[in-house]
Amino acid sequence: MADQPPQPPAQFIPRFRTDIYPFIEPSKFRGSLQDKVTIITGAAGAIGKGLAESFAVAGAKLVLTYNRTPPPAELKERCLRFGASEVTFVKCNVAELEGCEALVKETLDLHGRADILINNAGANGLGPLHAQAPEDFIKEIAVNFHGPYYLMRLLLPHFRQQRSGCVLNIASRAGTVAIPYSTGYCSSKAALINLTACAQKELDIDGLGEEVHMYSLHPGGIKSAMTLKKYSAESVSNLPPQAQSKFVNALDIYDDSPYLNGMVCVALATGVGKDVLRGKYFDVGQDLEDVLAQKDALRQNPDLYGLHTSFLGGLKNGGVPEGGYRREAWGVEFPGF
């Protein structure tokens, strides 16, 4: 009897979460990132505040950025009370390279190092591509993609030199699906997911993957000021009439706790999943403990938790096609002439 090919590891469906659960209970991570200098962009919004308070519990030194609206004063008080070793607010427009350069310089001048970068600032409009002002589309790309790239590019040499660091890019489920009237947001988040994966592969090749690890994440459905504005009745009413019904109840799925994302990010920053999830796209709605319990499945299938395309006939998304490359037998001249 011929040897049977090895069977892929059995998989089970991870539990779905909308709030903090035992594996990421804040008390388990108290002081786990003590004095780690943590930059969080877009800290004035709901997701940013959840991140700031979660990393405060872990004892981080927080550098919290904002663009136009400063975070409320009570955020600093709460973070210090929760355990943050320091809290600094910095005004920064992440869409501009100069602003990102100033942020990194101020952080390094103040603390002498940086340990964790969380690219959370975002822009998200709603409207048809053909009618959107080009400057609005470009702004979405700049905030959602250029800003994270700038800060990663500025900090990666520092992380590589100190042989430690973590990047958490707040992406979106929109980066893995095509949503009409959200072209700029979907495109920039897809680019952010792949930026994360490509940069991690470079670190792995250089033997730094265990020391410098990065992730892209869907933070869950959170009623932030950005989503409330995007799906407001006024915004939806500006869509073509035939499209409005698709979005009138869009906010119904936005009911997750921002602390779910915050504590998953804390857990990943401590390195609990870096052996199998670094460079990957993770949806915080999946129970992290259940996912990490299936490490063999993750190792065997590199397409899990990453962007990929499926083709008819099983054509591989990367590498050489089965049977190898071969030249087709057609004429020397283009047959149309």
TrEMBL record:
Source taxon at top rank: Eukaryota
GO cellular component, one term: membrane
One GO MF term: oxidoreductase activity
Keywords: NADP, Oxidoreductase
InterPro entries: NAD(P)-bd_dom_sf, Sc_DH/Rdtase_CS, SDR_fam
Short name of one Pfam family: adh_short
Signal sequence residues: none
Family: Belongs to the short-chain dehydrogenases/reductases (SDR) family.
Function per UniProt: Putative oxidoreductase.
Name of the molecule in the record: NAD(P)-binding protein
